[in-house]
Design a protein that fits this description.
Elements (H helix, E strand, L loop, with lengths): L3 H13 L2 H8 L3 H15 L4 E4 L2 E4 L1 H24 L6 E8 H18 L3 E8 L12 E4 L8 E15 L1 H6 L14 E3 L12 H5 L7 E2 L3 H9 L4 E5 L7 E3 L6 E10 H4 L2 H16 L1 H4 L3
Parallel strand pairs: 3-4, 3-5, 7-8, 7-9
Antiparallel strand pairs: 1-2, 5-11, 6-9, 6-10, 6-11
Helix pairs in contact: 1-2, 1-3, 1-4, 2-3, 5-10
Length: 292
């Protein structure tokens, strides 16, 4: 019979995708994680995780065990809610769009930590979304409502995007007066075949057929290119401090962030606290998210 604590460590390794990441998540050293996973594999007589260039990958047996282990974890969390229904403690892993995560969420996390010292927040702010359905995260803030099993999906906040350029670019190249004039300007945007959501096809919405001269899969990198005088780009308004809006009367895009939570953790005190914090945060920042 295997040790249930080994199963907990296996779950952490599968979620983190690395032994070191699992160790940081649960507060043990990397060697201990490796040793405990190996012990679990020995008892079950199956290889559960294999190393790859991108980190740890689940084998077929590992994927089956993870599904069962997550159900067991959910049952234990449910038992904890019965005995400690109001305890706001534990780890909440959040996946968020890169720009929103770095510009809106990250600066607000220290205040949340002071308010809720029992909470540990892990923020994955990157140019792709992790899935609550696959239990990669507890909660995902996305550009569209996720369609996944056992998810509770709620609208979080509306936001706006517009065309921006650096003042020094506009000193060299007079600002366009018509949308069609954009074809005569350097354009900054996404790498088309690396788009991770259809909501990011901004340029076609501004002017069909418009393509970038300088492109990146990262919205933060695009902002840096625009700020460096590289051209005109579509940016969320909350990322545009220090830049000049272009074609203010003609171009304004509207999008919405969505909150996707796995139903097994939705009712926990820690998730309720984080959702309340998120709601209050976006309400306080609404004039930044949607200023026009």
């Amino acid at each position: 019979m295997f040790d249930w604590d080994d199963l907990r460590i296996f779950i952490a390794a599968a979620r983190a995708g690395s032994l070191a990441g699992a160790g940081r998540r649960i507060g043990v050293d990397t060697a201990t994680v490796g040793r405990r996973v190996a012990r679990l594999e020995s008892v079950l007589k199956s290889i559960l995780l294999v190393r790859s260039a991108t980190g740890l990958q689940l084998t077929a047996a590992g994927a089956q065990l993870l599904e069962i282990a997550l159900d067991a974890e959910s049952a234990m969390e449910a038992a904890m809610r019965v005995t400690h229904p109001d305890l706001v403690a534990g780890t909440v892993r959040i996946s968020a769009a890169e720009g929103f995560g770095t510009q809106i969420l990250a600066p607000a996390l220290p205040a949340l930590s002071r308010q809720r010292p029992g909470l540990k927040i892990e923020l994955a702010a990157q140019p792709r979304f992790l899935s609550p359905s696959r239990r990669e995260v507890d909660l995902s803030i996305t550009l569209s409502a996720m369609d996944g099993a056992r998810l509770i999906v709620e609208p979080l906040a509306a936001y706006q995007l517009a065309l921006y350029a650096a003042p020094d670019y506009l000193a060299r190249r007079p600002a366009p007066s018509l949308v069609d004039d954009l074809r005569d300007h350097a354009i900054v945007g996404y790498v088309d075949d690396l788009l991770f959501a259809p909501e990011l096809r901004y340029l076609d919405e501004v002017l069909p057929g418009l393509t970038p001269d300088l492109a990146s899969s990262s919205i933060q990198a695009q902002r840096a290119i625009v700020a460096g005088g590289g051209g005109i780009g579509v940016l969320p308004c909350f990322l545009a401090a220090g830049l000049t809006r272009v074609l203010p009367a003609g171009v304004l895009l509207h999008r919405r962030f969505w909150l996707n939570t796995h139903e097994e953790v939705y009712a926990t005190a820690r998730m309720k606290a984080v959702r309340t914090w998120l709601t209050e945060l976006v309400e306080a920042r609404q004039s930044t998210l949607a200023p026009y």
